[in-house]
Amino acid sequence: MRRATDHKQGVVLLDTRDHTPEHEHSVHLKLAERLAQLLGTQVADPARPATHHDNFYFLPTETLIDPNHYRDMGITSAQDLFGGMVKAPYMATKAISHPLPANGRYPLGWTDEFARRASDALLSGYTVFSLEDAHRAAALLLRDGPLRIKPVRATAGRGQTVITSTTDVEQALAGLDERELAVWGLTLEENLTEVQTFSVGQALVAGILCSYYGTQQLTRDHAGEEIYGGSDLVLVRGDYDALLQLELDDPLRLAITQARTYEQAALQSFPGFIASRRNYDVARGLNSRDKPRSGVLEQSWRIGGASSAEILALQAFAADPALNRVRASTHEVFEEPDLPADSTIFYQGDDSELGRICKYARLRDYDHP
């Protein structure tokens, strides 16, 4: 049996999606190259099928589902991939961030144990797997104020709807694919205002673990929609305890603690769950009664918008064993950017779907603005 510390034969970009936009594919290839540098290997030919006899490192485009299938490719531990793997589809999405309504329908494998263990890290809300349950959950949440309906497979904040009335509910749920809903689920969550979203996470590659906190920025795409525009991170060598040793304000300390609670609940509740890249969006804002609320919105156990910063930081930690803290940021710009001198470009061009876009990252000393 091969050991997790054995030398990897190469890094394989494992695209499991039906369609990957060209700008994302370009970013993924550049990240694969940097992961290969960290592992002292090279990017492998994705056309060559991997078998259990091989010892590749994988960069999946999504959280992998079904450990039995990927075990045959040699993915058995967090040392084998940049991302994560779970047993059931709903485990890979924000669906786990809320419990079911009473007597709600649920897919095979669902457990309320996660919501109980993670309760201190969650906002008020429900996950549903049927239209009937969606209507019931919305009625319950509307008693306390506006709610937000969130498709669980959407990214970058797209597709979300703020609901203030039963009429809004009818419009938002009309046309949903009930088969998709039964497999993946839908979340309904208390709506917060004056929201600040923290990013909290960890990345482990080549035996180097870094933990981080940061904030997200929004930008507008060419259609004028406000979406994710990048993250500004502070990364430390080590685990969450090392991160909590920094001087932090109370809301940020709470966000890190909630992310860790959420992660521990997943590790305890989902057999077979592994992840080397773990990112959590934690929102702090005001509820309908203007009371501060904080909770994990969703997890990302896959390559994400902050991954270029994570990998640049891991490379810096690998290059300098005395380095224990850095600052890194990612940027997604839909106009011609004025690039800083220390920028590392991951994509710049005219994407056929998004139009002109530039994605770059920066790595700075911790004390550098």
Give an account of the 3D structure.
The protein is of the alpha+beta class. The protein has 3 domains: 79 residues, no CATH class; 98 residues, Dna Ligase, domain 1; 172 residues, D-amino Acid Aminotransferase, Chain A, domain 1 (2-Layer Sandwich). 25% of the residues lie in helices and 32% in strands. The chain has 9 helices and 17 strands. It has an 8-stranded antiparallel β-sheet with strand order 14-13-9-10-11-15-17-16, sandwiched between helices. A 4-stranded antiparallel β-sheet has the order 5-8-6-7. β16 and β17 form a beta hairpin. α1 packs parallel to α9 and α4 runs antiparallel to α5. It is globular.
Helices and strands in order:
Elements: E1 11-14, H1 22-39, E2 57-60, E3 64-65, H2 67-71, E4 84-86, H3 113-117, E5 125-128, H4 131-142, E6 147-151, E7 161-163, H5 166-173, H6 178-184, E8 186-190, E9 193-205, E10 208-220, E11 226-237, H7 240-244, H8 250-269, E12 274-275, E13 277-286, E14 292-300, H9 307-319, E15 325-333, E16 343-351, E17 355-365
Parallel strand pairs: 1-2, 3-4
Antiparallel strand pairs: 4-12, 5-8, 6-7, 6-8, 9-10, 9-13, 10-11, 11-15, 13-14, 15-17, 16-17
Helix pairs in contact: 1-9, 4-5
